[in-house]
Amino acid sequence: MRFIWTQELPSTQVWLADYIRKNDLESICIVATKNQTNGIGSRANTWDKVSCGLYLSCAMPIALLPQDLPRQSSSIYFGQILLELFREFHNDLWLKWPNDFYLQDDKVGGLITQYIKGFVIFGVGLNIFSEEKSSLLTGKMQNNLSQKDSIESISTEILSQIIKKILHFLSFNIVEFALQKNIDTTLHGITCNAFLQNNMTWYEVFNRYKQSFSKNHRFYTHINEDGITHKVSLQDALLQNDGSIVLHDKILYSLR
């Protein structure tokens, strides 16, 4: 597996997608940065820069995905797995259908997925600290910091821990590294067969996700019909076993 950490990048998702199109990638590749200048979000929106954020994209062979995963619900699958990692830093985080991380009522992050040349790419953006936007270090967690604690140092430490947890999920370990330095290294981990054995099925992940789905009923989502984007309420949304929802007699899928 190749792991790339850089101080700044226009977009981890765009960089990795372009790299796959131009090169013969053979295994997992992760690119991450703490400063993204032109990030993308759902519906081709931009992802706003914050004081400290996680911007990471990971490409993995489709063969590593669980066989029961509905491809159109990949964002829910990876989103729920990452949510459980992020909850170690704030218990009030939850995953809004289909791909947004919320801290109670406020969005603090999001995730998108793409399929390119036999690979799936999931890209995540997470606000760790911001003075203007909701973030992981918001409210109770931020207020509990003592005066001697530096927001910058705490944010950097959390960023480092999150990256290591994501690498651990992918069954790779990395020695201590300094976020102040660029990294481009190949990590040696377990075999693909072992990864598949340790990986969670869609059924397992979906059962965890649906436990908090009712929180969606107070919110809205955007759907595209005939090239026009509409904002619709999720109040009456019914979650289906493949990750889609039924809303006003229509079946809606996450295509993000």
UniProtKB/TrEMBL annotation:
Residues 9-118 form the BPL/LPL catalytic domain. It comes from the Bacteria. InterPro entries: aa-tRNA-synth_II/BPL/LPL, Biotin_CoA_COase_ligase, BPL_LPL_catalytic. It is an enzyme of class 6 (ligase). Pfam families: BPL_LplA_LipB. GO terms for cellular component: cytoplasm. Keywords: Ligase. The keyword Ligase applies. GO terms for molecular function: biotin--[biotin carboxyl-carrier protein] ligase activity. Its EC number is 6.3.4.15. NCBIfam families: birA_ligase. PANTHER family: BIOTIN PROTEIN LIGASE, BIOTIN--PROTEIN LIGASE. This is Biotin--[acetyl-CoA-carboxylase] ligase.
